[in-house]
């Protein structure tokens, strides 16, 4: 399992806001969707939720926009786990416009702090050792930011 997931997302006109570019909430949806897909592929998503009676919950999000995305663009959405904590993890994302030639163009970078929450009482729950091992075995993937035009600061 690679430490990151890159997904191509074609921009549909229904994703645009009144300014003609991709709506901010669409980026949030992409972040959630790619995080869930990556966690499930690595075995600490739905599988963990079922075994440990818990769910991943977003504590906070941060997005910095660099350029706009428009209808018919193809977005390369990338995610990886940047850090783990006792009850959660920091997940980072980059969003690039795919281009015919040359390096993809950075549109935004983002992060979410996810917390594992016990379904019974709604409180943070320690990540089980086997899930933590799977997460940490992925390693970090800052080199997959795809282009020299997409620096990700280590402190977010």
SSE inventory with pairings:
Layout: E1 4-10, H1 24-42, H2 46-52, E2 54-65, E3 74-84, E4 88-97, E5 105-118, H3 129-138
Which regions are unreliable across 5 or more consecutive residues at pLDDT < 50? 144-156
Note the main sheet: 5 strands, antiparallel
Query: How many H/I helices?
Result: 3
Nearest-integer average pLDDT: 88
Count of the separate structural domains:
1
Percent helix, as a range, is: 10-25%
CATH architectural group: Roll
Strand tally is 5
Widest beta sheet: strand line-up: 1-3-4-5-2
Strand composition percent:
25-35%
- Based on CA inertia axes, which overall geometry fits? elongated
Given this structure, which CATH class is correct?
Alpha Beta
Q: What Rg, in angstroms, do the CA atoms define?
A: 16 Å
Q: What features would you highlight for this structure?
A:
156 residues; alpha+beta; disordered C terminus; 3 helices
Structural summary, described in words:
This protein has about 160 residues and is α+β, with helices and mostly antiparallel strands. It has a single domain (about 5-145), classed as Hotdog Thioesterase (Thiol Ester Dehydrase, Chain A, Roll), CATH 3.10.129. Helix content is about 25%, strand content about 35%. Strands 1-3-4-5-2 form a five-stranded antiparallel sheet. The longest helix is centred in the first third of the chain and has 19 residues, at about 25-40. The chain is elongated.
